[in-house]
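Long-time lurker. I teach an intro course on protein structure, and each term I like to show students one example going from raw sequence to a predicted 3D structure in token notation. This year I'd like something fresh instead of my usual example. Would anyone be willing to generate the tokens for the chain below so I can use it in lecture? Attribution to the forum is fine with me.
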Amino acid sequence: SQGPIILAALLGCPVFTLFCLREGGRYRLHCEKLADRIDLPRGDRAAALRHWTAQFAGRLEQYALVDPFQWYNFFDFWAEGHEETQGGC
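-- Reply from a regular --
Happy to contribute to a lecture. Here you go:
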């Protein structure tokens, strides 16, 4: 979604990522600065949006690779009647 990137650009504020991973019986929060400020120049707005979307996707990918089974909220692997032809991984 481009909405958070556009909002951050309009506000001129720092952007952070926040991931919560279950480790053992506890949860660990990972908060990292993604950008001090996001600029979306008029002449190249689409490229800037692609850049920041890719930056966030890269961070998400890194955490998903750390423990891929914690990301069940992206796809209901546990649903009854689940078949691989429904678009699962």
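Some talking points for your students: DSSP finds two helices and two strands in the chain. Residues 2 and 53 are 7 Å apart (CA to CA).
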